[in-house]
Each structure stands twice: as C-alpha cells, then as structure tokens.
Amino acid sequence: MLQIYNTLSRQKEYFKPLHEGHVGMYVCGPTVYGDAHLGHARPAITFDLLYRYLMHLGYKVRYVRNITDVGHLEHDADEGEDKIAKKARLEQLEPMEVVQYFTNRYHRDMALLNVLPPSIEPHASGHIIEQIAFVQKIMDKGYAYVSNGSVYMDVEKYAKDYPYGKLSGRNLEDIVTETRELDGQQEKKHSFDFALWKKAAPEHIMHWPSPWSEGFPGWHMECSAMGTKYLGEQFDIHGGGMDLMFPHHEAEIAQSCAALGKESVRYWMHNNMITIAGKKMGKSYNNFITLEQFFAGNHELLEQPFSPMTIRFFILQAHYRSTVDFSNDALVAAEKGLARLTEAYQRLMKIKASAASSVEIGNLRERCQEAMDDDLNSPIVISHLFDSARAINTVFDGKGTISEADLKELREVWKTYAMDILGLQLDGAQDAGAGMDAYKGAVDMLLNMRLEAKRNKDWGTSDKIRNALTELGFTIKDTKDGFEWSL
C-alpha cells in the first residue's frame, strides 16, 4: 500500500483518498514571465511521477496544475513588482501576449520531458471572480480587514482560533523577526499580515474591479480559490517545491480555515531544491539555467547539450525529498546511466525466448512496487532495473537463456516501471521529435548497407561506412544478429 510523506505531520502515512477510487491533486505550477529552468523541471517531474503511479494503482485522478499569469503573484508580491507587466511594457506587448508566449514554451519543454499534461490547468487571471468571493468569505468570518482599499489577513486574530505556522513549523515570533520591511507595511496592523487583495497603483496594468478597490488578488489567493473550485472544499494532495512551504502554503491553510472553517488539504507533499554550488537554483538568485539551454548546450556551465530524457533521468535518480546539486559532471554521469538503461531495454526487445531460463530475474515487479510504495522511491526502482539488466545482457550476449514466461514478465515490468511510471523514453522516441524516426532510419540504412558489404566481402565499403559514422560520434557494435549503434 502506498505510503507518502505528509509534510504536515512530518512522517510517512498510508495514502487513503478522500473518495474511494478518486484522487484530487493540486500542484503549484509556473509563473510565466520567463523560460522554464531546471528548478521548474523538478516539481513537474516529481508530481508527474506521482500522477502516473496513482493511475497505475487504478485511481481516477483529477490533477490540477495552475498557471500564475499575473506577475505580482511572485514571492514577496504583497507589495512587489508585476514582472509580467514590466516585460509587457519593455517589449510593447499586451501582458497576455507575454503570458501566452511563455506558457507555450513551458508546455513545449514539459512535452520534451515527457511530463503528462494535467487534467485542468487554470490561470489565475481567469479566476478573479472566484478569488474575490473567497476574500469575501474571509471578511465575513472576521479574519480580514480593509486598509486603504487593500484587504489583509489578520494573522494575529486568526492565530487565536487556529494554529498558524503548523506546516512550516514557525511561530509568530519567528515570523515577526524574519518579516522584511516592504512598501505599504504601514497599511497593515502587523508586519506579518499578508495581502488577500491589493489596491492597484495608477500605473499598474493588470487590475480588476472589486468591492474594496480596483486592484488584484494577493499571491496566495489563487491556489485557495482554484483548488476548492475544481477539487472541492476538501481534497487529497497539494504539492509544490519546498520553497513554497512558507509563506505560500502556510497562507493557503490560513485562508482555507478562515473561509471554510476547515483545512482543505489532507496530504501536503514538497519536493526539495536543485542547487548549484550549494545554493538554490532560481531566477531570484540569477543562477539558473533554462531547459532550452540544457537542450542546446549553450550555457557557460555546460560542456555539451543534454537531452530531455537525460534531464528527467538526472532528477529521478534522486529521491524527490533530497537536495540535488547540479554540475556538468553529474549530468554526464546521468547521460551514461540512461544510455546503459536504454541499451538494456532495446536488447530486451530483441532477445529470443528459450525452453528454460538459466538467468534469474527474481521478483522484479514486487521489488519495484515496494520501492514506489515507499514514498515514490524512484532511485531504488532504477537500481532494480539496472540489476535486471545484467540478466538481459547475459542472454543477449549468448551466455544464458530465458524462458518465454520470464521474457514476457521482464518486458512487461520494464515497460510498466521504466516507461509508464518513471516516464523514461527508452525506445528512442524522444528529443528530435518528428525527425527522430527519419534520423534512426538513415543510420539503420547505412549500417544495413555495411552489413551487405561485409557479406559480399567488400571490406573497403564496410570500413568506409563504419569510419565515417565513428567520426560523426557514433558507437557501432557488431552482434550475432546484426548490429547495435548509439550516439
């Protein structure tokens, strides 16, 4: 039975959905004012893994992943700059042009990483009415106040009735100490009160009418409003990066309790950070590498391009709750590991069954499921697949045999866990998109011509083809059934 680590209880819990057979899952998606970077890839892949595994277990999953398309909804954005509006002004575009451009690019990157699209992908700007209604509920319950046209959460009053800080483990004293002075603090009763609605300055491009002012919702409001709209007042899983635990997710809990009298989320899940030289990789630190730069290899910290599947494998090699430190060497190692796994899978598809098995495949399926049930332990699943690759290579090299039943089981397990659940494209259908089949076909055609030349003892032609492909970076291996190649 699946166990997941609940950030709220700080322990692994057996997963029991609110409604039998159905799972409601909400994950904080990207803020679309720039290209996606490696830090965006980790939560996308982490919760794609969870989504895939829940469906494998037979659940019907409604997966909601939002698009934050109002720039001021960034961190510290109670008073912060609207990054989308700024980009729109600089490039003389409509804000929604900026949003659509980067949303399209985000979708392209996610497709390359083989991240499944969510069931629903709501935009913050498309749910202003719902956010206003949610703010009004909090006002009606007496946990918010209006100041100069803005609405703020009265955290001190809320904390008298509900435990504020329970998710992040902070208390109000700590929060007071850590709260930075921002513009507009004088509007608040307390520095730790956060905005539910902000009155827009005259120059602010993105704003909407409300009972309190012409303005825009606070950053935390979108997820409370859209989560309950599409998943109900209580739903199963809320996920996101660990950096969102405070203040974003803490504020969501407060908003839900204040408006609804109960917490909306039953299981909180947070992936850890990707770091670079020990520091979180992100736009706010100006140390990020975009996914497009990884794919093209055009960043000073990269010595070569890396395929989308290498990026996915690199992330899955570590448990989602562990920190991953980026380096070019780490990606090179991931690339080599993925190549070994890909070679084993492709060999598995080629080997033929015998009357009996001389190799031991063990209880691979059970071991992989046990690892996934243990809080999505993808590194252990990968290690089990590598273990079974030894048996595959033994049979492929003619040093062992495998029965038809064992071969069928091995192929099914590899397809289920390596491809369907881990989402690795080991059959070569990746990266080059529509051109991949033509690319593979051209290389296969040349190697078949070489094979024909060898049969005719035309060693000159055979060597010429092999040498030309080797110079281009191909590795060619002759086998008893023909050939294998990799780039």
Written overview of the protein:
With 487 residues, the protein is an alpha/beta fold. It has three domains: 19-271, HUPs (Rossmann fold, 3-Layer(aba) Sandwich); 276-421, Isoleucyl-tRNA Synthetase, Domain 1; 440-486, no CATH class. It contains 16 helices and 15 strands. It has helices at residues 38-56, 83-91, 95-112, 128-140, 155-161, 172-178, 221-231, 245-260, 291-296, 308-316, 328-350, 364-373, 378-396, 404-421, 436-455, 459-471, and strands at 3-6, 11-14, 22-27, 60-65, 144-147, 150-153, 195-199, 215-217, 235-241, 265-271, 274-276, 279-280, 324-326, 475-479, 482-486. The protein has a four-stranded parallel sheet, with helices on both faces. Strands 5-6-7-8 form a four-stranded antiparallel sheet, covered by helices on one side. Helix 2 (83-91) packs across helix 3 (95-112), helix 13 runs antiparallel to helix 14 (404-421) and helix 15 (436-455) runs antiparallel to helix 16. The longest helix has 23 residues, at 328-350. The two termini are 41 Å apart.
The dominant shape is: elongated
User: How is the largest sheet built, in terms of strand order?
Assistant: 4-3-9-10
Q: Any idea what the CATH superfamily of the largest domain is called?
A: HUPs
How many DSSP-defined strands? 15
Helix amount, in percent?
Answer: 40-55%
Task: Compute the CA-based radius of gyration.
Answer: 26 Å
- Give the CATH architecture of the largest domain: 3-Layer(aba) Sandwich
Q: How much of the sequence is in beta strands?
A: 5-15%
* Number of helical regions: 16
> Ranges with pLDDT <50 over ≥5 residues?
73-79
Biggest sheet character: 4 strands, parallel
- CATH topology annotation of the largest domain: Rossmann fold
Mean pLDDT figure: 90
Class computed from helices, strands and strand pairing: alpha/beta
Query: How many domains comprise the coordinates?
Result: 3
CATH class of the largest domain: Alpha Beta
Distance between the termini: 41 Å
